[in-house]
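New to this. Help decode both lines:
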Amino acid sequence: MKGKFFVGLFLLAPVFASAAVVKIKVDAPIHPVTSEYVVKSLEKADGQGADLVILTLDTPGGLDTSMRQIIEAIVNAKTPVAAFVGPSGSRSASAGFFIAIACDIFVMAPGTSTGSAHPVGVSLTGQTMDSTMAEKVTNDAAAYIRSLAEKRGRNVRLAEDGVRKSLSYTEKEALEGGLIDFVAGSEEDIVARLDGRAVKRFDGSERTLALAGKPIVEWPMTFRQKVLLTISNPNLAYILLMIGLLGLFFEFSHPGAILPGVLGGISLLLAVFAFQILPINYVGLGLILLAIILFILEVKVQSFGMLAVGGIAAMIIGSLMLIKSPIAELRPSLSYILPVVLALSLIVLFLLTLVFKAHRRRSFSGREGMIGETGTARTDLSPTGKVFVHGELWEAEAVEPVRTGERVKVIAVLEGLKLKVGKA
């Protein structure tokens, strides 16, 4: 009996190992993290022999390079891919529109939209493209969407209008215009509608889907991908940058603290990773670094606060310029920037105040600690004699004649532990 039981488990193992219908969900901007998630999932689905991959989209768009990586994986996948803009209220705009057009099946839920795919003239450095370059990018994007739509048998004109005119389509408009295959309310509805349907692949071959009774298995992001996706959030990336710079500033102004420097270094490295994804304006980043330099110089140079004021101004301007993206989800919110800048400025000013107080505080030990002390002349000083200062008897030299018993004040400590005094 045991032998038969293990043989049965062995025969059922491939069934449990593979997923008939795989669901992967992208509800974030299209960037390297989401691209890796989709590409790896398609490779895994091909390896496990899945019957269908449902790519559920709710995205405002994203980066062109990541979009093309996803499309390349979709058109070369062995497993058919169905794009599903859902649930209701979702959208698949810009790069998401390209991805959905490239899929074998394009489905939208009621109350969703797609389109608005006109490329925006912002480079990865955050600088605005000139008109000639913007036209070239638009023509390239239009040719790309025409190629995908024609290959998938979709309405080429509407697809191109979504790029050139930045038109957006509801699910009804997209269905009537021949952009999508049908409207469905859920992934289960899609599986039921596609069962027994012949799907034409990108290479021209056909595949009939047999999906009746087969489960839908969702493949979420791995822990690593979730962490990277969280870090790539522009608001968090901005806060990490500020924490990193503040930690380094604290380490410079208070050498030996160690912990702020370590935390600052880690935060800066995480921020640098996020900035590889986000369209950074390096002028803005330079202004923020200049602000930190000005803060550090304020510690070293007595500028009566002018360097600190300049640093705060550079910090605010640089923060506003830091990330330049047409997609709101790829740039930090102003409601985050202003509180963080103000809090950071107050912390820096507080630390500078501590430094100023430490510089102005009189020393109570060593040669410097004697300066300013008062005592009594034990002999006439004309100009030398003895004084009683700080509980001890000292050789002293007076700047003016002093009589025995008069109060004196230490002006300097001379060579040979001799005091230079004047009348108190």
Q: What stands out?
A: Residues 155 and 178 are 5 Å apart (CA to CA). The chain has three domains: 16-222, 232-360, 366-423.
